[in-house]
Design a protein that fits this description.
The complex is a heterodimer. Chain A starts with a strand and ends in a 15-residue tail after the last helix. In chain A, α3 (about 60-70) packs across α4. Chain A is an alpha+beta fold. Chain A has helices at about 25-35, 45-55, 60-70, 75-85, 105-110, 110-125, 165-180; strands spanning about 5, 10, 95-100, 135-140, 155, 160. Chain B is globular. Chain B has helices spanning about 20-25, 30-35, 40-50, 60-65, 90-100, 100-115, 130-145, 175-180, 210-220, 225-230, 260-265, 295-300, 310-315, 320, 340-355, 360-375, 380-395, 405-425, 435-440; strands at about 75-80, 120-125, 150, 155-165, 205-210, 230, 235, 240-245, 250-255, 280-285, 295, 330-335. Chain B is an alpha/beta fold. Chain B folds into three domains: about 20-230, Rossmann fold (3-Layer(aba) Sandwich), CATH 3.40.50; about 235-335, Ubiquitin-like (UB roll) (Roll); about 340-440, de novo design (two linked rop proteins) (Up-down Bundle), CATH 1.20.1440. The chains are: A alpha+beta, B alpha/beta.
Chain lengths: ~190, ~450
């Protein structure tokens, strides 16, 4: 019998039944792995995990990580240890919009704490929580390199700088009406300043 | 108005694209290097320029390049460190977003100098949209024959890729970056061997910051001697400074090294003075890792000389009364910012970002964060202040990578210059209960009386 340790399963392909990435994602993963010298395809693991996360509703379950390991011909543990090290990989389910508010010094001097309070009250959630409709997760993060536009937050690939209450209101409204999580391949890369 | 070398065409319309970049003199350095110079001659120009690493350490770039081992039959790699994560630093993002081709151009010229045929730009995961901008620029460079096989008919081949990270400050440390680029956790490696001997995949590797690589473009175009004419002493050339905090005009400024700090903060050309007509209380001149300076040591050194924006002048006085240029993450605090809360903020950052490999850092950063939080909440004791100094000392110098030092220095410096503010938190817990107590109870630095015999 397979051992169950803290929600992760021992390697057993049958438990992953039903997990499959889109053809486009699989093609992207294949292309990513070809960027490195022969036998060094493990280098692609970090970017591949971003693809995997976009394909799996924004988070990496043990099953998804096992699937990634199989795709990349790695041991599952190699994927787990990497996914748990970096802060951008979510190991628990998250809302359709993850609002990541920077709280480090420069943002703090310009009102990051007010931004966190305001979003929290507006959505009636605390740091780290997801709204009951599954739409928004409020996360605090460390410096995102936008100190000149403090206070700021990131959602997906978008940076939003020089935040005001009015800006946050319209942002939340727009995300609510868009209502969907953008995937790895259709993320727009233009800054939204 | 100082000379600009990197942001010269900052506001040219369409400079993000290949056509405008090329029309404004782009890719000249590649033509010059590949057609008229040997790789060693390019290295020689970089040495002559006196260029120092712009990521924070300030190590001479030409010297770093000359350390690169060149065993036969083993590939060499150039890796660009675009994992800009030092709090207060956002210059690389600005440069890559506005003028992505200058980095691509610098990568080609530098790779040629080092004899690398595959190069990587490792960019932090949060800069995803910037990675896309770079990928577009790389595609344009391939389409126009600047990358790929037999570049400009010279027989030189180069492939360039962008690698997106996963969100970890530690990956800005070069060996952690290489681990991460190999698809592993970002645990720094023990040195030696240095990356110049055994780096990416165990092959000789040079890791350079974005701004350093971009600076190779003007150095090759105009010559190393010309570049070295700018600046003062061993601080040559121009530097991108990320200015943030309580100033009127936050943003990225390209300065000639040697501009007085006072001019940088108060002139309209740069930061435009302190916001809302307030007074300056303190300044962190080189990113969160460097010691904080109280107002009276920002514009003047302890000896009363003007402090300049150079590696030497900013560190004048050592850690007693100086700081460092670091990455150029220039954060200014006004009289209403609480230094204890800011120090706690930094400590929380380092605790969050410690990779956990070395015990002094893994445990020590957590200790400092918790003790600082206790003081900030008004629940601390006088002995906590010395406890912090003690913990900081025990981290410093006892870890594999410099993150430990980076976590210890800001705490030690804050206590050195603002001890009275920490003591105030212990003595008046009732007055600091509100998280915004700095706005109500501004405590300015106290300049020590000169000691007379």
């Amino acid at each position: 019998m397979a051992e169950v340790i803290q929600g992760t399963r021992a390697f057993n392909p049958s438990t992953r039944a039903g997990i499959k990435f889109s053809d486009e994602a699989l093609k992207t993963i294949e292309a990513l792995m070809k960027r490195y010298p022969e036998g060094k395809h493990k280098s692609a693991l970090l970017p591949v995990l971003h693809v995997a996360q976009a394909e799996s509703d924004g988070w990496l379950s043990p099953e998804v990580m096992d699937y990634v390991a199989e795709l990349m011909k790695l041991q599952s543990i190699e994927v787990y240890e990497v996914a748990s090290f970096y802060s951008m990989y979510n190991l628990k389910p998250v809302g359709k919009c993850v609002l990541e508010v920077c709280r480090t010094s420069s943002c703090w001097t310009r009102g990051a704490e007010d931004v966190i309070d305001y979003i929290g009250k507006k959505l009636n959630i605390r740091e780290g929580e997801t709204s009951p409709d599954g739409m928004f997760t409020l996360k605090t993060v460390e410096c995102l390199g936008a100190c000149g536009g403090a206070p700021m937050l990131q959602c997906g690939a978008e940076y939003h700088e020089n935040l005001t209450e009015a800006k946050i209101d319209s942002l939340i409204e727009r995300y609510r009406s868009e209502g969907r999580r953008k995937s790895y391949t259709d993320l727009d890369y233009q800054n939204t300043k | 108005m100082g000379r600009k070398l990197l942001l010269t065409h900052d506001h040219v319309e369409g400079i993000q694209g290949y056509t405008a970049y090329r029309a404004n003199g782009g890719y000249r350095s590649v033509e010059k290097a590949l057609k008229k110079m040997t790789p060693d001659e390019v290295v020689e120009e970089v040495k002559k320029s006196g260029l120092r690493g712009r990521g924070g350490a300030g190590f001479p770039t030409g010297m770093k390049w000359s350390f690169l081992a060149k065993p036969d039959g083993v590939p060499r790699y150039l890796v660009c460190n675009a994992d800009e994560s030092e709090p207060g630093t956002f210059k690389d993002r600005y440069l890559m977003e506005r003028i992505p081709h200058i980095l691509i151009e610098g990568m080609i010229t530098s790779s040629y100098a080092l004899g690398a045929n595959t190069s990587y730009i490792y960019i932090r995961g949060e800069y995803f949209y910037v990675a896309r901008i770079l990928e577009n620029a790389i595609a344009e460079a391939y389409a126009n024959g600047w990358l790929g096989k037999n570049i400009l008919g010279t027989g030189y081949n180069l492939d360039l890729y962008v690698q997106v990270g996963g969100g970890a400050y530690i990956c800005g440390e070069e060996t952690a970056l290489l681990e991460s680029l190999e698809g592993k956790r970002g645990n720094p490696r023990i040195k030696p061997p240095f990356p110049a001997v055994a780096g990416l995949y165990g092959c000789p590797t040079v890791v350079n910051n974005v701004e350093t690589i971009a600076a190779v473009v003007p150095i090759v175009n105009d010559g190393g001697d010309e570049y070295a004419k700018i600046g003062i002493g061993r601080s040559t050339g121009t530097k991108l400074i990320s200015a943030s905090g309580n100033i009127n005009k936050p943003g990225v400024y390209e300065i000639e090294l040697g501009v007085p700090v006072e001019e940088f903060i108060f002139s309209d050309e740069y930061c435009g003075g302190i916001a809302n007509g307030k007074r300056m209380k303190a300044c962190v001149p080189g990113g969160s890792s460097v010691p904080i300076l109280p107002d009276y040591l920002v514009c003047k050194t302890a000896a009363g000389e003007d402090r300049l924006m150079t590696y030497e002048s900013l560190s004048d006085g050592g850690f007693v009364s100086g700081s460092m240029l670091g990455s150029g993450g220039f954060i200014v605090y006004d009289e209403h910012q609480c230094i204890v809360r800011n120090t706690w903020n930094f400590s929380r950052f380092y605790h969050h970002e410690s990779c956990g490999q070395c015990s002094p850092c893994r445990e020590g950063t957590g200790w400092m964060e918790r003790v600082l939080h206790r003081l900030e909440k008004g629940e601390g004791n006088m002995s906590d202040i010395d406890l912090l100094v003690d913990v900081a000392k025990k981290i410093e110098g006892n870890t594999i990578c410099p993150l430990g030092d980076a976590a210890a220095w800001p705490v030690a410096a804050a206590i050195r210059h603002f001890r009275h503010e920490f003591e105030y938190h212990v003595l008046h817990p009732d007055k600091i209960k509100d998280p915004k107590h700095g706005h109500r109870e501004p405590i300015m630095p106290v300049k020590p009386e000169p000691v007379t015999a």
